Amino acid sequence: MNSNLPIGVFDSGVGGLTVAKEIMSQLPDETICYFGDTARVPYGNKSQETVIKYSRQIASFLLDQKVKAIVIACNTASAFALETLQREVSVPVIGVVKPGARSAAEVSKNGRIGVIGTEGTVRSGLYGTYIRELRPEVQVFGQACPLFVPLAEEGLCNDEVTMLMARRYLAPLLEQGVDTIVLGCTHYPLLRGVVGHVAGPNVTLVNPAFETAKDLKELLTSRGMCAESGRTPEHRFYVSDGAEQFRAFANSILPCEMIETDAVTVKVFA
Fold it and tell me: Which of 55, 59, 138, 162 has the greatest count of CB atoms below 10 A from its CB?
């Protein structure tokens, strides 16, 4: 396989750009081929069957783009569809849940861990399952935070409304005495400042986007799949709807300016 082929990254919308940003930072030679399923966002309130169907369609599209690996940059899709894609897809596939779970298990001192995410991610209980595989004695407390995603997408990352919702969402976890909180949705790193302020200095925040980029680097290195050093990557971005809005949001958080975003429908909705 050509080691300079792109890394496929997909999410239900724009949140996965936080994962793309970490990959760009930690693997600057790698090209990213990103797909955001903006026409069908959110995934968090959809059934496992539906999320698997969407994930299969997107994986097919990315394989047509000749990617060498796929990163599921969506907690809900990682929870529901990772094992299916790993069985069915011809390139390595990793998700964001396992790296985040591993990090949480490693850093928690008192064994009381909170997970914030979409209703689908929290309902799946997958973070807790993976964490307890590593540390069976750990207690994991889930908290759905459905308003965090629209607040992040509206750019209200430091707004009073966001602070109010963070206090409301985090209160049950803090009452349980958690010392670690997993940012279990790819939008949530954008709200890290507010979440950290409400949680306080004694609570460690785990960013699965950062941990996933680390895992991707280890995977590519171990398999001899790293891109040539010093090359200039030409990232590609695709969405299923709203290309202009996506481009504006991406340019506000990515370390490089997005030149072009294409809206595609044929392979994804087939």
Answer: 55
